[in-house]
From TrEMBL:
Keywords: Dioxygenase, Iron, Metal-binding, Oxidoreductase
Family, similarity comment: Belongs to the intradiol ring-cleavage dioxygenase family.
Any single Pfam family the record assigns to this protein: Dioxygenase_N
Residue ranges annotated for the Catechol dioxygenase N-terminal domain, each copy included: 32-102
GO MF: catechol 1,2-dioxygenase activity; ferric iron binding
Residue ranges occupied by any Intradiol ring-cleavage dioxygenases domain in the UniProt entry: 115-292
Keyword hit for Iron: yes
Name of the protein in its database record: Catechol 1,2-dioxygenase
Amino acid sequence: MASQQTTNGQSTISLGQEFTQMVIDATGPKTNPRLREVMSCFIQHIHDFAREINLTADEWMMAVQMINRCGQMSDEKRNEGQLLCDVIGLESLVDDITYTTAVNSGQSVTSSAILGPFYRHDHPIRPNGTTISFDTPADAEPVFMFGRVLSADGKPLANASVEAWQASTNGLYEQQDPNQQDLNLRGKFITDAEGKYSFYCIRPTPYPIPNDGPSGQLLEMLDRHNWRPAHIHLVVQAEGYKPVTTQIFDKDSKYLDDDSVFAVKNNLRVEFVPRKGDPQAALELEYNIGLAPLDK
Ligand code: MBD
Ligand code: FE
């Protein structure tokens, strides 16, 4: 067959659908079936994308260099590739596709939100009622956060783990900031027999995502800001239930409607309210977390 001629708007290019099919068909028979499916679709879309927008060699090389720089600046404390996905909404989309939970009538399951690049796998277990804020800055507002982990039908879940992490008031997570102690503003709490957890933290403040790499550069080129609304990250797990990765957002924060990483959901907005008679915190937040049962 003669090579198929395709028009991309202005001129005629020779590498059309026939070429794309040839690239897809180069996949060998021993490939994992899911990988074959994923890569076939990816090749199809990225070829169609290049044809549709007339991608030039210079533009393509800019993108390659951007990806390379993401890798070069990433390490165990920095995940620039993930951040780049975040600013184009990809982590939020993948989260939605992966964790869409059927919320049955009368059942309540906490919505997910993206993990983000600042999770750590080694959160220390701390006793309930203790603080995650060491070196608390003078401008921070301490908060007592408490609640229960519940099954979707309202049964308290004992021995569930609640991991929480947040940025300090200078807008930095502990691993970004040499002036914060290791594991500051992070902790893992285990629910008691009544499903209760509690800890002291600080009221979160809006936070600029790092702008010293390709993600920040892209935001600037797209005439966008790099701020996130005030949030606390949570990962909650209990045996026999689907774990939930989420974020809660201060309902009075700036940037709720224009989060630079598109993670806000209305049902994840919370209100910090005055707390009486506690010298450790003038604010409190009661937050219950609902977990869906595992698929049978
Ligand atoms: C963050 O703090 C964050 O939570 C996400 C999702 C992306 C970048 C920085
Ligand atoms: Fe965050």
